[in-house]
């Protein structure tokens, strides 16, 4: 289902776990900051709305989305971080540069998540233009930052369920 068919900020909030004790890192890429700051605001406020505490949320900035992978690894390897949310916006340009970045970031964040066994959430917009980005950062299609925060919370709930033995 594409974003055009759903609002990214409409999600099931039933049965969300208690995350008042959980610690989150939010990484923000510094390219397209009008968009990435809106994503960060959405993610941060959503974490607070659903029970996370401000003192348990740390923010880190990276130069561009390509650097989200190493930033995510640094945070995920900390024993006092439970989940990482990576936020960026890679707008298609004249060349294939965006393709290389997007694939590297998607694969890199997945690798970090699997290596650390921690949720590392892909909150990176890959739009064709600025308007598509704005539409997904608090515009008509909602906010992928909200979605990324909910995804982190849900994955921590699954993690607790899986590791709660019979
Ligand atoms: N064009 C965009 C970039 N480019 C920069 C790269 O992410 C990276 O920082 C650089 O290649 C050095 O390693 N980054 C974005 O986040 N968004 C873009 O649209
Ligand atoms: C995704 C990018 O780095 C992009 O801004 C580069 O633009 P271009 O492909 O026109 O050089």
If you had to describe this structure to a student in words, what would you say it looks like?
- There is one protein chain.
- The chain is of the alpha/beta class and 166 residues long.
- It has one domain: Rossmann fold (3-Layer(aba) Sandwich), CATH 3.40.50.
- The protein has five helices and six strands, in the order E-H-E-H-E-H-E-H-E-E-H.
- A four-stranded parallel beta sheet has the order 2-1-3-4, sandwiched between helices. Strands 5-6 form a two-stranded antiparallel ribbon.
- The model has no long low-confidence stretch (mean pLDDT 94).
- The structure holds ligand LW54GNZ2 and the ligand CC(=O)[C@@H](O)COP(=O)(O)O.
- Ligand LW54GNZ2 binds next to strand 3.
């Amino acid at each position: 289902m594409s974003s055009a068919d759903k609002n990214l900020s409409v999600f099931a909030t039933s049965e969300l776990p208690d995350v008042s004790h959980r610690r989150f890192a939010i990484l923000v890429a510094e390219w397209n900051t009008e968009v990435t700051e809106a994503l960060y605001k959405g993610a941060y406020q959503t974490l607070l709305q659903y029970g996370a505490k401000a003192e348990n949320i740390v923010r880190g900035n990276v130069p561009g989305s390509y650097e989200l992978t190493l930033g995510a690894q640094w945070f995920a390897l900390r024993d006092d971080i439970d989940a990482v949310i990576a936020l960026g916006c890679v707008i298609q340009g004249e060349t294939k540069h965006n393709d290389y970045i997007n694939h590297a970031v998607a694969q890199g964040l997945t690798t970090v998540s699997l290596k650390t066994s921690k949720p590392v959430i892909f909150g990176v917009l890959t739009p064709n233009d600025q308007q598509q980005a704005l539409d997904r950062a608090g515009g008509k299609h909602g906010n992928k930052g909200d979605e990324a925060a909910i995804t982190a919370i849900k994955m921590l709930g699954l993690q607790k369920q899986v590791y709660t033995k019979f």
